[in-house]
Structures are given as C-alpha cells and as structure tokens.
Amino acid sequence: MNSHPLPTFRVERDALPALLKAMPKAELHMHIEGSLEPELIFALAQRNGVQLSYPSVEALRAAYAFTDLQSFLDIYYAGASVLLKEADFFDMAWAYLLKAKEDGIVHTELFFDPQTHTERGVPFEVVIKGLTRACEQARTELGVSASLIMCFLRHLSEEDALKTLEEALPYRDLFIGVGLDSSERGHPPEKFARVFARCRELGLHLVAHAGEEGPAQYIINALDILHVERIDHGVRCVEDPALVKRLAEHGTALTVCPLSNIKLCVFDKMEQHNLKTLLDQGLKVTINSDDPAYFGGYLHANFLATFEGLDLDAGHAYTLARNSLEASFVSDEVKAGWIRQLDETFARFAA
Ligand code: ADE
Ligand code: ZN
C-alpha cells in the first residue's frame, strides 16, 4: 500500500497556490516535443526555412481544439517538423526547463520521441545531444535535475522500435529508460514485448502509456508483459477493481495528466476527473503536464486546475509531491534529501 496515507495539514486556503508552487516535486510525464510553444515553432520554422501550413501563431493556436488523442497527435507531429538542428532541440528543452524551475520542479524525467525525427532524416545523435546539453545546463545553472526517457511510437512496428534502440545504444549513458507513447487504441503493449525485454536486459527503466484511451487490460499487459515500473496515465484502471487493488498494493505509480485528459476528452470537465478517487483508493498518483504547450499549461497550472476542480487540500498536495519524488528514478539517498525539503516547506507554510 501507499506508505503515507493522506496526511492533514493546517494551511490557509489562500496560501495553497503558493504552497503548490513552492513544494519540491518531480515531473515524470512530459513529452519534450509537447513543450514546443507556437511562438517557438514559428521562430524555428523561420530559422530553418520550414514551410508551415498555418499562416500565424494565432492560427496555429486556434487549431488546438482536440476531440481525442489522434486529433492531437496529428498536430503535435506537424509541430515537431521544425526541429532539425542540435540547437533546436536545445532551445526547446531549455525553454521547458526554465518553466520547470519556475514551477518548483526539482527533478524531471523528459520523454522524447526519436522516431519522429529520425524518420525525417534528423540523426539520433543530433536529437540526443541537443537535449542532453539542455539537461546538463539545467543542473549547473538552475539546480534542476533532468533525465531523458526515450519513447517508442506504438503506431509504428516493433521492428522500427528495435532499429531505434540499436541507433540509441552508442548513447546508452545519456538516457535512463524507455517508454511507449502515441496512438494507444489498437496498439497494445504486447506488440512491443521483444523490444522491452531487450531494454530490460540492458538495465533501462521501463514505463508505458496505458489506460489513457485504451482499456484496463492494456495496463495489466504493460505490467505483466512489458514489466514496466510506472504507468503513464492509467486513469482507466478504475474499470477493473482487481487491478486497482493490485496497483495500490504494489505502490505502482500512475503519472496522471489532468489538463491533458480534459483537452483530449478523456473526461468532460475537471470536476469529473477521477484523480481524487484514485488517491482515495490508495493509488500512488502523480500530477504531470504531458504536452503543456498544447493542453493549456505547465505543471503549476495542472496543480491549480486540479485542486480547484476537485476541491483538494494541503494533505493532497503533500501526498502528490511526495509520490512524485518517490516514483522518480533517482537514488533513495537523493529522494530522502528532497523529501526532507518537502517536509520543511510544509512546516513553513503550516506555521
Ligand atoms: N505523445 C505525446 N503526448 C501523448 C499522449 N498524451 N498520449 C500518447 N502519446 C503521446
Ligand atoms: Zn503522454
């Protein structure tokens, strides 16, 4: 079970937004290509001589009205087409890391989609070097810890994923794990059993998107067949009470993305989101921004919208921040240091 059932804290309601920002936390589910703001898309398009099919920043932003995951992915992949050079990947990641600092994130594990770039002829090396340079600079200049998780696109074949893994191996030390993203329905986890088995042998951390639009069975298969350590999204687990019990007993983290779920119509409105129910059932829930440039906000905006929509309090805030630190892929020693800082922050606000 979750080792820390919802605590209570006496914090003034007015102080909650400041506490949500100040509390040290980790972001564990953010696609770096999903942090490309329309302004940066246009700037990079101009820098690289790429023709966009939207006449202006405003027209592009106006197209961000999604009906489901696929309607978003079509625009998301089009946006990523402006990324060609190492400096483009650096600029994109650096812009996100500055926001992360502002939102009180002490550690972030960034997803990147190499296939989105290599299939356009951008070498893997260009992608990973640009992202790595931004992560290193975040550590030295911002005091923000940042690691990379390479995602396989599930709408492509497992052969393509295996080929991508081969291309990535010379840079094995530059990423900590692998994930599985893109169109979920019709592309179950078991499609990637062999590539995940290989990654497991290599000692990589394993995560996968499951139960965002796909059924609870995809979560079970991600756990049993891919052996993932965290489930990205996972909100459809509630359709299987035995699965909910299993997730709670094992303390398996769910990296939930509230604003994303509303924008992609997984829930109609925030008041209907099941995040509070999941917490009440003892699940190790975390809050994340997924694709912040497309879904209306970065991590703090996700916290604010969720706390308002579901009437959450300081006890929930503590649990969510602590879950994010505990579920991160850093050493126990580093986690303990951040949890001490978290406790100090709450003590300050409760005073
Ligand atoms: N790629 C970027 N965002 C995604 C999401 N929410 N689900 C699946 N794949 C994604
Ligand atoms: Zn995602």
TrEMBL record:
Tell me the residue numbers annotated for binding substrate.
291
One biological process term in Gene Ontology: nucleotide metabolic process
* Any one GO molecular function term: zinc ion binding
What is catalyzed by this enzyme? adenine + H2O + H(+) = hypoxanthine + NH4(+)
Which parts of the sequence belong to the Adenosine deaminase domain? Answer: 24-344
Specify the domain of life of the species encoding this protein.
Bacteria
Q: Which InterPro entries match?
A: A_deaminase_dom (IPR001365), ADE (IPR028892), Ado/ade_deaminase (IPR006330), Metal_Hydrolase (IPR032466)
* Listed SUPFAM superfamilies: Metallo-dependent hydrolases (SSF51556)
The catalytic site is made up of 212 (proton donor)
Q: What is its EC number?
A: 3.5.4.2
Q: What does this protein do?
A: Catalyzes the hydrolytic deamination of adenine to hypoxanthine. Plays an important role in the purine salvage pathway and in nitrogen catabolism.
**Under which name does UniProt file this protein?**
Adenine deaminase
